[in-house]
Design a protein that fits this description.
Elements (H helix, E strand, L loop, with lengths): L7 E5 L4 H12 L3 E6 L2 H15 L4 E5 L5 H14 L5 E4 L17 H21 L6 E5 L22 H22 L6 E6 L15 H13 L3 H13 L9 E4 L2 E3 L8 H14 L2
Helix pairs in contact: 1-2, 1-7, 3-4, 4-5, 5-8
């Protein structure tokens, strides 16, 4: 399938793993890519790799630490200065953080990066997405959401920090955000979907957690994970398939639409999380 070259796709977390693999695949479809990353050297290298592999040099780089709300607001403003519309937004940046850390805004890092960055960046760029008849928002979640709930009494995991519990909660938050936003945008032509692309060999743990424990978990993750290119196929399909042009408010595992956890369909929980997220990002 070839997509019109004027289509613009914003991707976060595109300098490694599934984000980079997805960027390569979308570049092959002749999209104009907007890559957001926190490391300028990695961004430039990624641009060179994509251009060499695909022949597509229509790639633009924006620097931001997505755990920082100031950076998110600034990068959104810079994108708005350059672009008059966006066709696709892929919220992909995330991490498993092994010890309790806080973002520059004083928010628990897993929640700040994995959920609030999706919430705030999407909110900041929504006006550009609304200018297209069939824009798409894709939130990369995880199967880890299925055993999670939102602990509203300890949403920053301060009582007893468990990294995979915090990660699961953040990935559930991605889905709750997806469903709530899809409902709000019904009838606008913008679709919003969440996806678990599969366990992949990536830097999800390694980039954020030095030390023996982090290195061991990263090694196991690398050992059992599928190649990023395989998992990226699912995101590329969600971003480009004409069959999904009107599909919104759904959860996919790979390229297959399936139900998410029973808990995730509670609309009262959607609204409660939305209100808290709004308060965190004021």
């Amino acid at each position: 399938m070839t997509i019109n070259a004027t289509q613009i796709c914003v991707i976060t977390g595109a300098t490694s793993g599934i984000g980079k693999a997805t960027a390569i695949q979308l570049a092959k479809l002749n999209l104009e890519l907007v890559l957001i990353g926190r490391n300028s050297t990695k961004l430039e290298y990624t641009k060179q790799v994509i251009a060499k592999k695909t022949g597509n040099e229509n790639i633009h780089l924006f620097l931001a630490d997505l755990s920082s709300q100031k950076d998110i607001i600034k990068v959104s403003s810079n994108i708005k200065k350059k672009y008059t519309y966006i066709d696709i937004l892929i919220n992909n940046a995330g991490a498993i953080v092994l010890t309790h850390k806080k973002s520059i805004d004083g928010i628990e890092l897993t929640f700040a990066l994995n959920h609030l960055s999706y919430f705030l960046l999407t909110s900041c760029l929504l006006d550009l997405l609304k200018l297209k008849n069939h824009a798409r928002i894709i939130n990369v979640s995880s199967i880890a959401h299925k055993s999670a709930i939102i602990d509203f009494n300890d949403i920053q995991n301060e009582k007893k920090y468990k990294p995979f519990k915090a990660y699961g909660q953040s990935k559930l938050a991605n889905i709750l955000f997806t469903y709530s936003l899809a409902k709000q945008l019904y009838g606008t032509g913008i679709t919003v979907n969440a996806i678990h692309p599969g366990l992949i060999s990536s830097n999800l743990i390694r980039n954020n957690n030095p030390g023996l424990g982090g290195r061991f978990l990263a090694y196991m993750h690398h050992l059992i994970g599928k190649r990023p290119e395989i998992a990226a196929n699912a995101i590329t399909h969600l971003a480009s398939s004409p069959d999904l042009i009107n599909v919104s408010g759904k959860y996919f595992e790979g390229s297959i639409q399936i139900p998410s956890s029973e808990y995730s369909y509670n609309q009262g929980i959607w609204q409660k999380l939305w209100n808290i997220s709004t308060n965190f990002t004021k």
